[in-house]
From TrEMBL:
InterPro entries: HGLS, YdcJ_bac-like. One of its GO terms (molecular function) is dioxygenase activity. It is an enzyme of class 1 (oxidoreductase). This is 2-oxoadipate dioxygenase/decarboxylase.
Length: 463
């Protein structure tokens, strides 16, 4: 049997190879990421692996795909379920973006700590929202839904193999090979001519809508390596003549620990595509939909820490509006220095970030006078704290990446009331629970504290 994590790792590798053939600049991005990671490891030693081994970081990828209907999303969930990946988090990019991005999203990923360590592949998956009248009037909504209903993205054989793999926890070797071939193939860019008039109709609403609903297939939209110094990567990519987007999304670079997620990308490339004109002629054209994203991951914040982060973002917006021309990154750094502790220990002490806790093997003394408070156990050398990696996404950053790669803002009628979508709705669509990332981090931390209590003979987990 080829286990689910082995299927996941093989799928991520093959997807990366395929995407590199289709988008050569992605291979450059991977090469530069590897160079930067090696340089950081040499310069910082073991500290560079504080948030994951260099093996994990180098192999790590997240993909992004877009689908058009709840049925398509449910089928995607079955495919990723075969790989041991679960839907985590609900992201409403309609509200997070200033421009027209009519999608809601979730991320499929492993949730168990050991599974994440083996291969943390995740796929940010967006669903088009044709029923939202801010973007699509009744006529266009009907036309779009009719178009989407007439396509089939995932062949029945692939779905049947996926269901078997999820039920059995893997597949025999021959079936695993067939599953991987079919799964990678459905995310290749189709050579089928694109209906030019229909695509342009949707593009006037949103380039994202056109990319999803203007074609009869889906494709990998971007594939993201992880880098240990995203600012250095940005500099090196620019030096190589690759046009990057204007900013690095997420928290600023500052003197304290990396938290949450920082992302950037090279700009979407004009890729040759066959277009079918209204008179039926097939011509050579170009569409600009795929780009190369890269990310740097930090420590997972608690609910309290995330609330502080969101409040800081709002303050940066206010200050930037009040002081036009001021560099946003400088504003953010100044506010971060005022409002966030600049050490891991203080982040933990204030309950702002998640850590796992582990009993130290050469701990002091014989257990007499053992403290029961967590901060004292850490301070006196009984227990060590290891930061929990943030495995998820930031809606505003995702929307920022999306819109920074759009050539036009699109259209949105804010006089209309938006259609309601939420995590419960998405769980119903998928037929499986959309997990709350905060709950997962809390479970991870609490599980480690329970183990500490057992190892030290404490009545209850330390707090």
């Amino acid at each position: 049997m080829i286990s689910q994590w082995q299927l996941r790792a093989a799928f991520a590798r093959r997807l990366s190879d395929m995407y590199g053939r289709e988008v050569p600049a992605y291979t450059t991005l991977v090469d530069v990421s590897r160079e930067v990671n090696e340089d950081v490891l040499r310069a910082r030693g073991a500290d560079a692996e504080r948030l994951g081994s260099i093996g994990r970081v180098t192999a790590e990828r997240h993909g992004a795909i877009r689908v058009g209907t709840p049925a398509e999303l449910q089928q995607v969930a079955r495919i990723f379920g075969a790989l041991g990946m679960h839907p985590v988090g609900f992201y409403d990019l309609r509200e997070a973006a200033a421009s027209a991005v009519p999608v809601v999203s979730t991320a499929f990923r492993p949730v168990d700590g050991e599974e994440l360590a083996r291969n943390p592949f995740r796929v940010f998956t967006s669903l088009l929202t044709p029923a939202d009248p801010r973007f699509f009037d009744a006529d266009l909504c009907a036309r779009l839904e009719n178009f989407l209903a007439g396509r089939r993205l995932f062949p029945p054989e692939l779905l049947a193999l996926a269901d078997r793999a999820e039920a059995a926890g893997g597949l025999p070797e021959a079936d695993a090979e067939r599953f991987l071939q079919l799964a990678v193939r459905v995310f290749e860019l189709s050579p089928e001519p694109v209906d030019q008039a229909w695509y342009e109709t949707l593009e006037r609403v949103s380039a994202v809508a056109a990319d999803i609903g203007g074609v009869r297939s889906t494709h990998i939209n971007h594939l993201t390596p992880r880098v240990l110094d995203i600012d250095e990567l940005y500099r090196r990519m620019t030096e190589r003549g690759i046009e990057m987007i204007d900013t690095i999304q997420g928290p600023p670079r500052w003197k304290g620990p990396d938290v949450l997620l920082r992302q950037t990308s090279f700009r979407a490339l004009a890729e040759p595509r066959a277009l079918r004109t209204p008179d039926g002629e097939v011509i050579s054209g170009a569409l600009r939909v795929r780009f190369g994203e890269v990310e740097a991951r930090g420590i997972a914040l608690t609910r309290q820490g995330r609330a502080r982060y969101d409040a800081l973002l709002a303050r940066v917006d206010e200050e930037a509006a009040r002081r036009p021309g001021t560099d946003r990154a400088d504003l953010a750094r100044a506010l971060w220095a005022e409002e966030l502790p600049d050490t891991e220990r203080e982040l933990a002490a204030q309950g702002l970030a998640h850590f796992t806790y582990h009993v130290v093997s050469d701990r002091p003394g014989d257990g007499s006078g053992l403290p029961t408070r967590l901060d004292e156990l850490v301070e006196q050398g009984w227990v060590r704290a290891e930061p929990v990696v943030y495995e998820d996404f930031l809606p505003r950053s995702a929307a920022g990446i999306f819109q920074s790669n759009l050539s036009e803002e699109g259209t949105r009628n804010n006089d209309q009331e938006g259609a309601a979508y939420d995590s419960d709705w998405l769980s119903g669509v998928l037929g499986r629970e959309v997990l709350d990332p905060f709950d997962l981090y809390e479970e991870q931390q609490n599980g480690s504290l329970a183990q500490v209590a057992r190892a030290l003979g404490l009545d209850r987990p330390p707090r």
